[in-house]
Amino acid sequence: MSELYEQWLDLRSDTVTHPGAAMREAMHAAPLGDDVYGDDPSVNRLQDYAAELFGFEAVLFAPSGTQSNLIGLLVHCGRGDEYLVGQEAHTFRYEAGGAAVLGSIQPQPIANQADGSLALADIAAQIKPDDFHFARSKLLALENTIGGRVLGADYLAQATALAHGRGLATHLDGARICNAAVKQGISLRAAVAGFDSVSVCLSKGLGAPVGSLLCGDKTFIAQAKRWRKMLGGGMRQAGGLAAAGMYALEHNVARLADDHANAAFLAQALAQIPGISVSTPQTNILYVDLPADACAGLNAALQAERIRVSMAPRLRLVTHLDATRADLRRLVDVFAAYFR
Ligand SMILES: *Cc1c(COP(=O)(O)O)cnc(C)c1O
């Protein structure tokens, strides 16, 4: 770990974590092979372990969550098909329009409710009849957690049953599904129940440097493998990265509760400061509403204390395994001094 990195507190995202000593040790020790030939024992071990953990027949290791989601959409939908997705969803908003650009898949965005869900009536209303005027409705894509909010198991059961009942498949962008499971005290299998495919990020909060897992049945994953190759995601001696992901799943899931507790601590402490308003975090993401004219000055004060955030009037702060309670107290002190 570089000294410079250690000195900074970075709350822009839970992607900023560096692999710790034990994870690096696991990466160093990983047996390797050529994964494009299916020969990398460490990749195979991760995929098998994750299939068991999430309750799917098969899993594919992908370089990023964006690619993993895109592969999922490409398997479920063809040219002229559409997928129903939240306006705020990562796949729709933050993945450069990949489904439309590379898959000729039309997104049908639906407004997210305040709790992050898509209203069942809105989903039902957007499923098109089989009529040549319309794109073919093929897939419902949900995200959990979404903006740090947890979609509960009851809602997910209803939404996926609705989609299946109307002949649609279901995909979960579960970049932060481990946060959702830990928060609810349910198994990862229970957290992804009802979905035909799930994408899970190993590099968000779980501490791996890169990597995502795409889960599905065997037929789905066989098709996914072709798309991954086409998208340039076939990696050779990827076992070192897979070993980091394996370490992350074995050691860094339960501890997400610490990140949730740290976010709650931060929200409570910042809420004492007059002039700003703070959301109550459900998991590891909180939002702070700031006076717009405070942003530049506050950002400078934070940087002077080696604290990095993505400054905005609606400031998102994300806790993670490299942000200690003591670090967070430093941030609270900067805020308190600035608004005094
Ligand atoms: C970060 C994120 C992704 C994409 O992951 P990358 O590995 O950054 O490509 C997908 N979905 C959600 C909800 C995310 O937060």
TrEMBL record:
Principal EC category: lyase
Signal sequence bounds: none
Coiled-coil segments on the chain, per record: none
Domain spans labelled Aromatic amino acid beta-eliminating lyase/threonine aldolase: 10-290
Pfam families with a match to the protein in the record: Beta_elim_lyase (PF01212)
InterPro entries, alphabetized: ArAA_b-elim_lyase/Thr_aldolase, Low_specificity_L-TA-like, PyrdxlP-dep_Trfase, PyrdxlP-dep_Trfase_major, PyrdxlP-dep_Trfase_small
EC assignment: 4.1.2.48
Cofactor or coenzyme needed: pyridoxal 5'-phosphate
Alphabetized UniProt keyword annotations: Lyase, Pyridoxal phosphate
GO MF assignments: lyase activity
Classification via Gene3D superfamilies: Aspartate Aminotransferase, domain 1, Type I PLP-dependent aspartate aminotransferase-like (Major domain)
Family: Belongs to the threonine aldolase family.
Quaternary assembly: Homotetramer.
Protein name: Low-specificity L-threonine aldolase
Organism: Janthinobacterium fluminis
